[in-house]
Amino acid sequence: MLAAAGRLVLTSHQRPDGDALGCLAALARAARAAGKTARVVVHDPLPARYAFLFEQPPAGSAEFAALAERADRIVVVDTSSFAQLEPVEPALRQFSPKVLVIDHHLSSDELGDTWRDVAAAAAGVMVLELLELLSWPVDAAISQALLTAILTDTGWLHHANTDRRALLAVAQLAQGANLNELYQRIYQTDRPARLKLLAIALDSLEFSHQDQLAVMSLGPDDFARTGAAADESEDFVNEPLRVASVEVSAILVEQPGGGIRASLRSRRKVDVAAVADEFGGGGHSRAAGFRSQLPLAQLKSRLTQLCQGLLDVANSRS
User: Fold this and answer.
1) I need a surface site. Which of 23, 79, 150, 171 has the fewest CB within 10 A?
2) Residue 142: domain span
């Protein structure tokens, strides 16, 4: 499919993370090195911590339809959900015969031809295997992009999804790479505004159910008074998992245009993908998310009740 395609358009979900952006950068670089044209499209501002991955700035959602019309193949990575691709859903439906999906999430829509591998720790693992299958080059820059994808999605190899396949991929890609420099570039270049925003998020932290459930919230005013960008709340949801008793962590972020974006994490007892599914979202059993139009207080109450019920079931079995 990709071998015969001369013009590629590459995209992923809204609010792209390190896995999504690492895959997009790697595929774009490899395709160009293989003699093809490739354009990356992202639907939100590119997070500053990942800007170094791209040799040219990605296009925006407004350009997607025109690019898709001219493309031989449209590649969607790290999602197969229209709910995460809202700005370009009409064009994706229009050009679905051209669409190829590379995804490791369970929840899905029919976007087009799909390669799904829920056993993969990250989409980056799948992309590496694809590049090897195609005999496309994997140089230092591509290796760095794929390392970013895999390492950020596995919590630098300490999340539960870390497996032998991911470790072997990292070992292969790390030849000639400086993982300490990469870690510093991604995680130790924060602006003061991000730490101020984190302080507000932690100040909102509420524990319940014998301290097994932790919920935080942020609103537009919090971003405005700290000067933090929307993407700078990434990974905040992991902070409460420092507490030994916490099994489920959630952060609810009110969006400037209305609605709430929720991110969920679980240690082991609760399948948060099932929780997200109740609100029209999805993800993995240990990391998931969704969007909601419910008022914050109502959403927090409903989410808390649902998680507490699942914790009761899990506790009764242990």
Assistant:
1) 171
2) 7-187
Structure tokens at 296: 């914050």
DSSP string, 179-237: HHHHHHHHHS---HHHHHHHHHHHHT-EEETTTTEEEEEE-HHHHHHHT--GGGGTTGG
pLDDT at 26 over 90: yes
Cβ contact 115:131 at 8 Å: no
The answer to whether 309 and 274 have CB atoms below 8 angstroms apart is: no
- Are 14 and 78 contacting, i.e. CB atoms less than 8 angstroms apart? no
Whether the CB-CB separation of 21 and 80 falls below 8 Å is answered with: no
Pair 124, 146: CB distance under 8 Å:
yes
Work out whether strand 73-77 and strand 7-12 pair parallel, antiparallel, or are unpaired: parallel
As beta bridge partners, residue 235 has none
Give the model confidence (pLDDT) of 141-182 as tens digits. 999 999 999 999 999 999 989 999 999 999 999 997 899 999
Q: What is the pLDDT of residues 94-106, one digit of tens each?
A: 999 999 999 999 8
- Tracing tokens 């197969």 back to the chain, one arrives at 80
- Specify the pTM: 0.90
CA 128 to chain centre: 17
Residue 304 lies in a domain: yes
CA–CA distance, 85 with 98 (Å, rounded to integer): 16
> Among 164, 187, 210, where does a domain finish?
187
Do residues 151 and 240 both lie within one domain? no
Interval 98-131: pLDDT, tens: 999 999 998 778 999 999 999 999 999 999 999 9
Q: Are 244 and 167 in a shared domain?
A: no
- pLDDT for residue 51 is more than 90: yes
Of the candidates 193, 255, 196, which has an alpha carbon nearest to the alpha carbon of residue 220? Answer: 255
Q: How far is CA 113 from CA 20, 76, 109, 187, 203, in A?
A: 18, 10, 11, 35, 45
